[in-house]
Amino acid sequence: MRNYIQYNANQQNEVMIAIPALGERKEMYEALAKALPEVWIVAIDLPGHNGLLDNDFSFQSYNKTIKAVMNELNMTEAHFVGNSIGAWIIQHFYRNYSTAVKSLTLLDGGYYFHGDYHLDDEMEIQLPIIERFEDLQEAIHEEIKSMDIVHAEDRLYLYEYFIGNFIEEDDIYRHHSMVEALNYLAKAVDQQNYCIEKETPLPVLLLLADHQQDELLNKKLTKFHERQPTSKIIKIPNGFHFLPLTNPQEVAGWIRNTIL
């Protein structure tokens, strides 16, 4: 299976590399690509995700994977967007390949050092194994219901995407990612600070899901703004953590008005 997917490949004036959230697939950027038809978007699966049987899950190895995809597609530079863990990954890529990066868009992640706030989190990620398709359907419907998505077409899109996260094998449904990859990557952002510590000359856009305002969030954002004083920080009303999936129009609007 190819580890990347292209959207709007006929548009090559603006190019964007898109990195998914932990446990998600490259296809999570489909709706954003539709909302940004003027941008050639290349979304790349995380290691050990979407059926990829990798044995090296490190950020350093994945950086090389991203650069190899760019070389294959004859890209010398691109805008970069990452959701959740993807927001830390694109900053690490910038550290290694700064001339290949035109801008950074962080989607509900990447604005603080995870290890400063999750030092006691030693729990291993476990993946569900589901025997009945009806149980899988019910779980996904409940998840979407909790998001309070208004439009029926949006609920259908989310349902089809989340169903695609599971693979039928030997009469059971298992998650598409390797549990070893999930745990390795989750621990990586706890153990090492991948945030850019010095102000970058690049445009930086931070889009946040509509978190409840609290002291901890304000502390994280204050530190981020001290590191990146020229960055743009926006909270997306009625936003959810997987912003490219749930709020593609709002994300596209801010990218178009701030980055492009």
Describe the fold and architecture.
This protein is of the alpha/beta class and 260 residues long. The chain is built from 9 helices and 10 strands. 38% of the residues lie in helices and 18% in strands. The strands form 2 sheets. A 7-stranded mixed sheet has the order 1-3-2-4-5-9-10, with helices on both faces. Strands 6-8-7 form a 3-stranded antiparallel sheet. Strand 4, helix 3 and strand 5 form a beta-alpha-beta unit. The longest helix is centred in the middle third of the chain and has 15 residues. The chain is globular.
SSE topology:
Blueprint: E1 4-7, E2 15-19, H1 30-35, E3 40-44, H2 59-72, E4 78-83, H3 85-96, E5 101-107, E6 129-130, H4 133-147, H5 152-163, E7 166-169, E8 172-175, H6 179-191, E9 204-209, H7 215-227, E10 232-236, H8 243-246, H9 248-258
Parallel strand pairs: 2-3, 2-4, 4-5, 5-9, 9-10
Antiparallel strand pairs: 1-3, 6-8, 7-8
What would you say about this model in short?
38% of the residues lie in helices and 18% in strands. The protein has 260 residues and is an alpha/beta fold.
Q: Name the helix and strand elements from N-terminus to C-terminus, one letter apiece.
A: EEHEHEHEEHHEEHEHEHH
Strand content: 15-25%
**Number of helical elements:** 9
What is the straight-line distance between the termini? Answer: 31 Å
Q: Which bin fits the share of residues in helices?
A: 25-40%
Order the strands across the largest sheet as they lie in space: 1-3-2-4-5-9-10
User: C-alpha Rg, in Å?
Assistant: 18 Å
Name the poorly predicted regions.
none
Question: What number is the mean pLDDT?
Answer: 92
Largest sheet: 7 strands, mixed
The overall strand count is 10
Going by helix content, strand content and strand pairing, the class is: alpha/beta
Inertia-based shape:
globular
